[in-house]
């Protein structure tokens, strides 16, 4: 039997993503339904015949070979900017204490993080290990006690693990011996704690936690200040605890921006006190976020050094708004884009942003602006009359709406972020502070920065997580600065973002869809370009990514196998976590 695997490609932003072979018929595809039914029934069997041992028999009694690791690889993810290591193994005391120094060392954020990481590292070890240990104290020195989390905050740190000898021999590299993390800010200290936690491994023979390859000297800082993950809670409601799990997992890969796509045409789940009927557009009264929920999410993220950038997408993708306030629709037959002819529409937007400014301190606010289907405006008499009276086209109206929304955001001391269609349509009219968010394809950011705007990269062909057929290699190889040679223009690229659109992801599968491919982009955004430019990814990067995926699993994150044909699928056979 010959198996033909069909890979679905998607060209539309958030709406026409991965089509299903098992989707219900429509007027144009009803004739194909028998084939679809057969495909849905037999595709699993075909895949099994391809990937299982000959004859399709279970491998009962057959043992896979023991995995041998390449000890020359550095299993820190993302790879630090600069590091040296040795060949010693040091044991870590499960009762390790922290000595905080400097104005910011005693920050509650730092102290909570120490306890959090200590619990992660020693979760395998029960009781008290007898005898002396090489590492019994961690010194954390933070120069500033300012806990303001803003774009471009200093996330650099220096981590030193001595050779375990008296005094640690640390005089040359560190101001203290033993194990130390030195950072200018609280958030640099958090990144150092994550790296230190990845140096710690559990020895099942001695039942102790060890640091291998000591002594370590690591000086590290991110390549880009914006390292994001979009999470869509409109297409499928995600409970607060799931959003927290996503945020927690982001911190393990040093991602630092949660782009919360809260609202879209399908549902409006967020409470807006000024306009309390807006969340009548939620799926049900149980699938909603209160103001308190939003505060809790933002605070949880801040304690992990992660910004939360909210998005209110206008003027398109707004059907759900009119459930509670029908006057926002141009007509009952034209439910999006929003009605720009009414001042009331902009009053509502202003009210939403006024309420949200109290919750979201991050200086960037996403106003969407993508996929505005203007035909609906022309089919509505009062809208058409409004345009004719002003000698305006629907594209003029699109520009008018986006610029007014930008003015509202700017009045609340927010920097507006817009999807790239706004730049493609009327870039000369955009506010000069606008950050343009690429998604349609490559080659956009070079044009954006050449016009003096800042840019965020999210090319859908390589950084859309709901595109299940995009392998980890493409996530890893996507270079945000491709086509930008001018150093001043390169600085206008804030970074990038992987996007977890929610049509086919909910609580049941969102984390295994995000991970481990998001980690591939995370290293691209954190580590030096020369460190991520290897031509032999399977030898130098894949084993490290598989190791990180296993670390995520160990920490309770259900990251899917790295090398699956399609993302988020379970393993296709027996084997080690470190080879899947």
TrEMBL record:
Enzyme Commission designation: 3.2.1.52
Q: What reaction does this enzyme carry out catalytically?
A: Hydrolysis of terminal non-reducing N-acetyl-D-hexosamine residues in N-acetyl-beta-D-hexosaminides
**Active site annotated at which positions?**
371 (proton donor)
Q: What class of enzyme is it?
A: hydrolase
Q: Which GO terms describe its molecular function?
A: beta-N-acetylhexosaminidase activity
TM spans (from-to): none
Tell me the GO BP annotations in alphabetical order.
Answer: carbohydrate metabolic process; glycosaminoglycan metabolic process
Query: Which Gene3D superfamilies does this one have?
Result: Chitobiase/beta-hexosaminidase domain 2-like, Glycosidases
- What is this protein identified as? Beta-hexosaminidase
